[in-house]
User: Fold this.
Amino acid sequence: MFTEARRYFVERRVTDRIAETGATSFMNYFARLRSDLDGEVEKFINAFTVNETYFYREDYQLTCLTSDLLNERTRMKRPGEALRIWSIPCSTGEEPYSIAIWLLENWPQVDAHDVEIIGSDIDTNVLKEARTGIFGKRALMRLTPKLIDKYFVGAEPGRWQILDDLRQSVRFTAVNIVERSETRPLGAFDVIFCRNMLIYFDDSSRRVAAENLYENLSPGGYLCLGHTESMSRISPLFEVCRFPDAIVYRRPLEISHG
Amino acid sequence: MPLIKNTFHRPASSSPDPAAALTSVSPDERWAAARAAGDDPVNLAALAQVLARESDTRVREAIFTALARIATPESALAVLPYLRSDDANIRTGALDALRAMPEAVKAHLSQALADADADVRLLACDLIRNIRDEDAPRWLCEFLEIEHVANVCAAAVDVLAEIGDVQALPTLWRCAARFPNDPFLAFAIKVAADRLRANAPGSRV
Ligand SMILES: C[S@@+](CC[C@H](N)C(=O)[O-])C[C@H]1O[C@@H](n2cnc3c(N)ncnc32)[C@H](O)[C@@H]1O
Assistant:
């Protein structure tokens, strides 16, 4: 699933796992992996997914979300119908919690709509951390002290826990983006954030991911990628939308034939 | 707080037989069928067959992806003819699908590089870019020695600059000599040669 450029990284992680499990050789380790000894498959997946993330990362997209995307989406909703936002991959939760905080802070209509936020990642360790919601300085570096005061409580020195109320406002589920059987049950979203993951995939996995994302969007729903990523180079399924704050992708409203 | 609480809910999902649904009248069903068909190589023939008739862009894309996932020489062979399509979207779609299965494409490269259609040869050069094989630079060199269309040579030179090494230099000079009146190709060759020399071990650039 990873490109050549990531090879070194992957090799390192595999070497780490071999050392950690006390396997005597790669073949020996591979045998453990195949028989899923001591839950090695999950540990293996967790070891080589990159989780670096922080609050308000690429916040121009959050600006775009509240100045344009959500207003477009609410216009298409029946009264009372919830807005659904998906953060995949969500890593340790910074992204979906950022979305929640950003909405509360910057979207005047937030009280008029139900908003459902789901965070997903393939790595169950990061999801555990996301649910706990305790973060260090580094993750909070882009938040003002005022925001930290408002949405976090001190947990231990140098660590802050996100407020319970907010914690309960994001649902976390384990999903592999290239497994359709795992993505489909989540249903259709109005906006999907899929940032800083597809760059690590090979062409074939990227295509499958793009098709899954397409299926998980309502017609007219929006897809936000990381700033170095471009869907036009992955898949023609989406339209490019240029908003003042960000370029995002959209599942077309009508299906074009031919 | 208007944010919805994280209580669990999950709609049921269903999975119809893919091969049969590939010919459904509903594009949505064909799309779903094409996606599911990529899970199993037995669907290769059915996918190849419907690809010829599919007029919906989105469904065609899913068929290409399914064939790319199957990623056998046979599935690459099912996509290759579409490099010749008159429709630029289909050509691009086919090329992207082939790029996504570099190993599967390998078996057909020599034939594609010998194709009578210069456009197909040009796209075949481009496909080599993604193929990790230590012999890939040699294939390009052999191709460059005999290719007679300057544009196609330029495409091969471009890829060679990326994946080759200084051993390709004599081929590049011979190619330049064969097209003395083509300033674009001469320039492409100069750029490629500079790059290959700069990347050579022990080079001080
Ligand atoms: C760098 S984080 C990105 C987090 C956040 N979206 C951001 O931009 O800050 C990458 C995440 O991708 C997850 N990941 C990798 N492959 C995945 C897959 N196939 N399905 C779901 N998540 C995956 C990793 O576990 C990791 O947490």
Q: What stands out?
A: Residues 8-14 of chain B have pLDDT under 50 and may be disordered. Residues 97 and 111 of chain B are 18 Å apart (CA to CA).
